[in-house]
Amino acid sequence: MSTPDRVMLRLPFHGTWLARNSPARRVPSHGTHLFATTYAMDFIAVRGRRTATTRDWRTLLHTEPAERFFAFGQPILAPAAGRVVSVHDGEADHVARRSQLALLPYALTQAARVRGGAGAIAGNHVILELENRGGYVVLAHLRAGSVRVGEGEPVLAGQELADCGNSGNSTQPHLHIQIMDSADPFTARGVPMTFGDYRAWRRPGRAPNVVERGIPNESEIVEPL
């Protein structure tokens, strides 16, 4: 089966973010086609390569406040012009889990979250219908109460939609983004995406590359131009 054409987006945030679960590394990027996540990607805000202000005993042994992570509360932008077709808000932001001790009990409840549907998996999220039938973009794990758009509202590329949070199936604050061929994640198929005009740091201490069009590699740090 042939791969659909890649849809061009802009990175939906300001500053430097770390790429995770990149489809440049493997497809399906999250290890499953479930909920149209075939080409999905995650981004975590960083300073240098640090994801949080603090690293202490809680990092090794316990849960951590979401507020100590750089991504938490950062504005999430529309990656392209379109129209809001769905908004889900009101899911709580969880504590963060970097510790293996904290991750183990969380992993044991994964199946229950999948059964819980979109709210349990994506948490607070916005779905945009792109112009010119470009597909449907999902921006997920948003901060509770931060969504600033409503269903049916047109949006411009770069417009603030909400803040990054730690809702849904998330172990630390980050943004999950994917494109689907329909608005229903239970029946949709994933669509590949590409990003335009960004800097990419592939190795620490090296000068960044300027990318006109591409897919961030796994563990690459990126920043929109």
TrEMBL record:
**Molecular function as annotated in GO:** metalloendopeptidase activity
SUPFAM superfamilies recorded for this chain? Answer: Duplicated hybrid motif
Matching entries from CDD domains are given as:
M23_peptidase
- Write out the coiled-coil annotation as residue ranges: none
Occurrences of domain M23ase beta-sheet core (ranges)? 120-185
Q: Give one Pfam hit by family name.
A: Peptidase_M23
Q: Show the InterPro entries listed in the entry.
A: Cell_wall_metabolism_enzyme, Dup_hybrid_motif, M23ase_b-sheet_dom
Quote the protein name from its UniProt record. Peptidase M23
Q: Which organism is it from?
A: Streptosporangium minutum
